[in-house]
Design a protein that fits this description.
Layout (H helix, E strand, L loop, with lengths): L5 H8 L3 H8 L7 H14 L5 H7 L5 E6 L5 H15 L4 E6 L4 H8 L9 E4 L18 E4 L8 E5 L1 H14 L5 E4 L9 H15 L9 E2 L6 H13 L6 E4 L2 H13 L9 E5 L13 E5 L1 H20 L14 E4 L1 E4 L2 H4 L5
């Protein structure tokens, strides 16, 4: 059976094709009786709007790209689900691309993958520099997540320094004094790890706890095996922490395993807190305390901001012209979620 077309809907409803188009596009100057007749015809015939054709008539593809370092990292998987939902509400299709944290792949994403098939890009970078964001003439609108590369592009993230400071303050309030930052980076960079390390250090300083450079434990990557390896290495080197601030939940889950293998009780001997509030942390033993970013808000703000930029680029927005607004840095709320890895079993 042939797919119903707009003229079939018009014939069934007894109206013009233009009227059907007005109803589909939710124009206000259509009587309620006519609107209802068209909607009933659409439902009866099973008509589906050709979104691709609609976008192409506006000079767009209706496709945006979400570019993340690794697809199998739970945080990015959960974030992608929210982005797809938000984009779908705006009749946008999401192309999900894995960069591997490699600069060439991230540069390709910034350039729209060398073609015009994406209208905009939401990118979580690891290898880009601020210089990479300059001189992007002809590139699609881009919103960055996570890493802050000065002010070269729109950016959506939590306040990572503040969040790490609050998490460390919680550990200090529990009486912990020898706190390791697993995955920390003691540098002046603008990346997420650097910001969280600064928050950790500022909380220690505020509490009068001397910062030991050995307290910042680097990792090769931010996965569970890396968290376990980092804690094993620290313990074998003689560290005797009473708390771990892990810069994401994957590191924290790996750290829990390493502590268990060393016979160290959590949280009695070592308290552990992570970042991201991924689902696995709610089912670990013990359950994982964490900094929970509002992932739904991250996705919503990123898609909304990208939509505004795409409208500007197409000359259909409310602005005076493409790119007339400076880049925006939007901060999303976060909260501490306290579970057994710092608080002990419920009711204790």
């Amino acid at each position: 059976m042939a797919r119903p077309r707009i003229k079939d809907v018009a014939r069934h409803a007894g109206v013009s094709e233009k009227t059907v188009s007005n109803v589909i596009n939710d124009y206000v100057h259509v009587s309620e009786r006519t609107r209802r007749a068209v909607q009933e015809a659409i439902e009866h015939l099973g008509y589906r709007v050709n979104l691709a054709g609609r976008h192409l008539r506006k000079g767009r593809t209706g496709i945006i790209a979400l570019v993340v370092p690794e697809l199998d990292v739970p945080y990015f998987a959960e974030l992608a689900r929210h982005v797809v939902r938000e984009a779908g509400a705006r009749s946008l299709t999401v192309l999900i691309h894995q960069s591997g944290g490699e600069r060439d792949h991230e540069l390709s994403a910034l350039a729209g993958f060398g073609s015009a098939f994406v209208d905009g890009v939401i990118l979580s970078p690891l290898a880009l520099t601020a210089d990479d964001l300059r001189d992007r003439a002809g590139a699609p609108p881009t919103v960055l997540l996570g890493e802050l590369l000065e002010e070269g592009a729109d950016h959506v993230a939590i306040d990572n320094e503040k969040a790490a400071r609050e998490a460390t303050e919680h550990l200090i309030a529990l009486g912990r004094r020898t706190i390791l930052a697993v995955g920390g980076r003691d540098s002046t960079g603008l990346g997420t790890a650097e910001a969280r390390t600064r928050g950790y250090r500022s909380a220690l300083a505020e509490a009068g706890i001397a910062h030991d450079p050995a307290g910042v434990v680097p990792v090769a990557s931010f996965r569970m095996p890396d968290g376990a390896a980092a804690v094993n290495r620290a313990l074998e080197d003689g560290a005797r922490p009473d708390a771990l601030l892990c810069l994401n939940d994957q590191l924290a889950l790996g750290a829990l395993r390493a502590l268990h293998e060393h016979g160290i009780r959590v949280p009695e001997e070592v308290a552990v807190i992570g970042f991201d509030d991924v689902e696995g942390g709610r089912f670990s033993v013990p359950t994982l305390s964490t900094v929970a970013p509002d992932k739904a808000a991250v996705a919503k703000l990123a898609v909304e901001l990208l939509q505004h930029r795409m409208d500007e680029a197409a000359g259909t927005g409310e602005s005076d012209g493409p790119g007339d607004r400076p880049p925006r840095d939007l901060v999303v709320p976060h909260r501490l979620v306290l579970r057994e890895s710092t608080e002990g079993p419920a009711g204790r």
